[in-house]
Write a structure and sequence with these properties.
The protein is of the alpha+beta class. The protein folds into two domains: 119 residues, 2,3-Dihydroxybiphenyl 1,2-Dioxygenase, domain 1, CATH 3.10.180.10; 136 residues, 2,3-Dihydroxybiphenyl 1,2-Dioxygenase, domain 1 (Roll), CATH 3.10.180. The protein contains five helices and 17 strands. The strands form two sheets. The chain has a nine-stranded mixed beta sheet. An eight-stranded mixed beta sheet has the order 2-3-4-1-5-8-7-6. The longest helix has 13 residues. Keywords: Aromatic hydrocarbons catabolism, Dioxygenase, Iron, Metal-binding, Oxidoreductase. Belongs to the extradiol ring-cleavage dioxygenase family.
Length: 288
Amino acid sequence: MGIRKLGYVGLNVTDVDAWTDLLSRTLGVGVTTAKSGTDEIVLAEMDEFKYRVALYPSTVDSPREIGWIVDTPAELDRLTAKLTDAGHAVADGTEEERDLRGATHLRWFTDPAGFRVELAIGETKVRVGADRPTGGPGITGLGHLVLASPALAGLRELYESVLEFKLTDYRSPGLFFLRCNATHHSIALGTAETASIHHLEFEHASIDDVGRAHDRAQANDVPISISLGRHMNDKALSFYVKNPSGFHLEIGCGGIEVGDDWVPHDFGRASVWGHRHADANPFAVANP
């Protein structure tokens, strides 16, 4: 009960056209448009629901909102009370915001890193399956996100104690993987001097889909920021591209699920193999 999964992410972006090209031509994500006030925004379709990523035209590149799906109105009220008791001011979303997200209920607050976090009930199914510009099953949904912030302690307190995420595992000196369902993690929290999204993960149906996306990235001269590899902790196979806003998109498949008997632990090295960084890794530790 409570939060069931990561629902959507909204981004302020300075180059909507470059994002749209990356999503459709390289990653095989169908895109549509919608109105938000006077702005036309781009919605990235990954499954049968309305959207998973929304791109808002802006003069800056920054996270706009992180949306979590909640089970029931009673659970939304319970979590709202916990947030209020913990000192977070919770507000209702507007009717326009609810309509855009396909939600029946929407509340939001600001987390310790300064990000807008939304709790939504309801997802609108608008298709049998998402349109695939490049063919094949491709992307199956939005997997997880990784936040980096100087407010790591406050974020851990929020997600673990208030929002009731469970710690799956961690890597010293300060990277924590948390889950809200059986998936290994829906969010990871790290430390950084400036609050930002380190990456979003787009979940794929198979390694062949990941491989085809890798081929398209190379053919389209999309910067591969972290090479193909397998993670040590969730066993996912993936590679990363640098998106037009400057952070990473992870293209992956095959992450494990865990049960209630799972014991959190330090998993040591980041990857079984691969995952070589083109630039400095902010979470780097010595890897044998």
